[in-house]
Amino acid sequence: MSPILDSSRYDSYKGVTAMLTSSVANEIAVDTSAIIGFNVLITDRDGMVIGSGDPSRVGSFHEASVEVVRRQTAMSHDPDAARRLVGVEPGITLPLVLDGEAVGTVGITGSPGQVERFGRLVRNQTEILLRESVLLSSRLFREKAVEDLLRNVAHYDRETADPGLLTLRAHELGYDLRQRRVVVVVDVETPAEPTKVVRALRRVFDDPQDIVGSTSSGRFVVLHMEKVPVADRCARVPGEIGTGCKAGIGGRAQSVPELHDSYQDASTALYLAERLAGAASVVHIDDLRVHELVASSGRQLRARFVRALAGELSALADWPILRQTIITWCECGFNLVRAAAELRIHRNTVVYRLNKIEELTGHSTRDARFVLKLYLACVADHLDSRRP
């Protein structure tokens, strides 16, 4: 089972705005230095250089930055002032402030009279880039947290997991798992960028409480607040994604254990649909409950059941046609006209096939108990005949 969400990761998510990473700082410093023609360095709040157009200065201590962070005001350093400070060259040092907190400094090396005019511009641009980086990090962290939540729902174990903990984690992300939902599992058949698929699914499932994310390569999960028939929404998915995909729909759920069951149902619906000829791209488990029950028995048991009920029928060359006739006739409520339309044949052809089945089995197709058992045998044989 996937590990339960780590609370420390959520704590770091809440404090992500205070982060100033060396990779981001160095990229900003190098690019800005190239643009203005003066060396730009960036320090953390402790005065350590974490980015610079001059690689030799990265990792050194910049004493002036400590006071700049403390006072949150800019300082300029002429050659005499610079010599009295550790790791400082002539220039200007300005505080980097995010959400009212100084997270570091940006310095420009050169004659204070020359570089001062760049100071405000460079600081403002650096703060903008840092905010964008923080927002991106926040979004990425949230996406990962949502994926972890969905995986934990998918792999939930009643014996070992605490549903209250998952409900709490969802609440921290702004979701209430106690509201009624339906799980939709979408399998993308051709390679696609996961973020693009997630965005497409969010255009379809656009309720603020809809939870959308990827759980594995090619598989996406939606915990959907059903307000309109979910099948109608799912029908829009292929057009939004723009690639081949199938969607399985589970039952309604209003708790973590029920959401897990709904996920299992949706996954089972997709599994069964792969083994049914002509299955739609959107399948609901409620339409496949009989198939689910039959598939849950062992394959050897199913094979014995088919031999016992179908007998000589299963050895005939046209058995697949007779099998589909029985399935369609039963699922059409034993209505010859509806069954003929579904099979796209004449009504008399259905009658002929049913008479042939009666002759070979020795049972009347008006015997409801026999027909029901034969229907289940046909479903079992159909599933196993398409087994990968």
The total of beta strands comes to 10
Q: Tell me the strand percentage band.
A: 15-25%
Number of domains as seen in the coordinates: 3
Instruction: Give average pLDDT, whole number.
Output: 87
> Which residues sit in consecutive blocks of at least 5 with pLDDT less than 50?
1-18
Strand order of the largest sheet: 2-1-5-4-3
Rg is 33 Å
- Report the biggest beta sheet as strand number plus sense, adding barrel if it closes: 5 strands, antiparallel
Query: What form results from the Cα inertia axes?
Result: rod-shaped
Q: CATH first level of the largest domain: which class?
A: Alpha Beta
Q: Per CATH, which architecture of the largest domain?
A: 2-Layer Sandwich
User: What is the helix tally?
Assistant: 16
What order do the helices and strands follow?
HHEEHEHEEHHEHEEHHEHEHHHHHH
- Report helical residue fraction: 40-55%
The CATH homologous superfamily of the largest domain corresponds to GAF domain
Distance between the termini: 26 Å
SS content category: alpha+beta
CATH level 3 topology of the largest domain: Beta-Lactamase
What this model shows, in words?
The protein contains 16 helices and ten strands. It has 388 residues and is an alpha+beta fold. The protein is rod-shaped and about 110 Å long. It has three domains: 16-139, 2-Layer Sandwich (Beta-Lactamase), CATH 3.30.450; 175-292, Alpha-Beta Plaits; 297-385, Orthogonal Bundle (Arc Repressor Mutant, subunit A), CATH 1.10.10. A hairpin with a 4-residue loop joins β1 and β2. The strands form two sheets. The protein has a five-stranded antiparallel β-sheet with strand order 2-1-5-4-3. Strands 7-8-6-9-10 form a five-stranded mixed β-sheet, sandwiched between helices. α12 packs across α16 (368-385) and α13 (319-331) packs across α15. 52% of the residues lie in helices and 16% in strands.
